[in-house]
């Protein structure tokens, strides 16, 4: 019996506790045809010094050479708090993932063409951050890995599912999903507010998070990360929260 849809993309809501973020056009308002054709200062503290220390360590490892920008990691948003969508609770936290057989689940319910294309670009073994979204304190809680590459999302054909799509055909499915498996919890919760402080500092003075999609396309539930973005965010788990 398939798991109920719980990941969310279409009609996504901006994360709470980010009132000063620019509100992007909702994915509901974005034309499907158009998408298909396209397929403030940080708080005082350790943001800039943290970037300098991270950069120094990375340069030491790589001889100072900058990596070519490619997307090889991901950020996956899911809602840890109950919310009904067409009578179905779409809640799915990292604890729900850990409770699944083999701590593995299908990442279904994505209904945005750009997010779908990101799903289709995922490769076996790639890692992603599990991000709690649309909750009191959004942020990164765990690391997961891709254990099955993109295949048709069964929920698009289920009339009882909130993500049912009457325009999709089994011979040519519109929507895809992947399977992900729990790897580990991050050593500490990394809140959106902390990531944003680094993003703003990097935007002003240079750094790997300056173009992070979490802030340029914050409503998108599937987001790519460069190796540099992933490594820097992961390095934050070693720092004391501030």
Please render the helix and strand layout as text:
Blueprint: H1 32-38, H2 47-62, E1 71-78, E2 84-85, E3 88-89, H3 94-98, E4 104-107, H4 113-121, E5 127-132, E6 139-152, E7 176-191, H5 192-205, H6 213-216, E8 222-226, H7 227-235
Parallel strand pairs: 1-5
Antiparallel strand pairs: 1-8, 2-3, 4-7, 5-6, 6-7
Domain EVE: 73-235
GO cellular component, one term: nucleus
Subcellular location: Nucleus
Model description:
The protein has 242 residues and is of the alpha+beta class. The chain has a domain at 71-235: ph1033 like domains (ph1033 like fold, Roll), CATH 3.10.590.10. It contains 7 helices and 8 strands; from the N terminus they run ααβββαβαβββααβα. The protein has helices spanning 32-38, 47-62, 94-98, 113-121, 192-205, 213-216, 227-235; strands at residues 71-78, 84-85, 88-89, 104-107, 127-132, 139-152, 176-191, 222-226. Strands 4-7-6-5-1-8 form a 6-stranded mixed sheet. A two-stranded antiparallel ribbon has the order 2-3. A hairpin with a 6-residue loop joins β5 and β6 (139-152). The protein is globular, with a radius of gyration of 18 Å.
């Amino acid at each position: 019996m398939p798991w109920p849809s719980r990941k969310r993309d279409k009609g996504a809501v901006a994360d709470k506790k980010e009132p000063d973020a620019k509100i992007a056009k909702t994915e509901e308002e974005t034309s499907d045809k158009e998408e298909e054709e396209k397929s403030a200062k940080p708080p005082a503290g350790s943001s800039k010094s943290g970037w300098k220390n991270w950069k120094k360590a990375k340069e030491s490892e790589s001889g100072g050479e900058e990596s070519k920008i490619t997307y090889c990691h991901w950020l996956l948003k899911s809602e840890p708090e109950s919310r009904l969508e067409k009578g179905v609770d779409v809640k799915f936290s990292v604890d729900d993932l850990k409770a699944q057989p083999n701590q593995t689940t299908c990442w279904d319910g994505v209904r945005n063409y750009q997010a779908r294309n990101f799903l289709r670009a995922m490769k076996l073994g790639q890692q992603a951050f599990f991000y709690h979204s649309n909750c009191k304190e959004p942020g990164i809680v765990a690391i997961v890995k891709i254990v099955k590459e993109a295949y048709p999302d069964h929920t698009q054909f289920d009339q009882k599912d909130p993500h049912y799509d009457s325009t999709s055909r089994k011979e040519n499915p519109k929507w895809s999903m992947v399977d992900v498996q729990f790897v580990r919890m991050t050593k500490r919760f990394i809140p959106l507010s902390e990531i944003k402080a680094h993003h703003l500092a990097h935007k002003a003075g240079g750094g790997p998070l300056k173009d992070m999609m979490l802030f340029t396309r914050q409503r998108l539930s599937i987001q790519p990360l460069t190796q540099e973005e992933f490594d820097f965010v992961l390095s934050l788990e070693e720092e004391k929260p501030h």
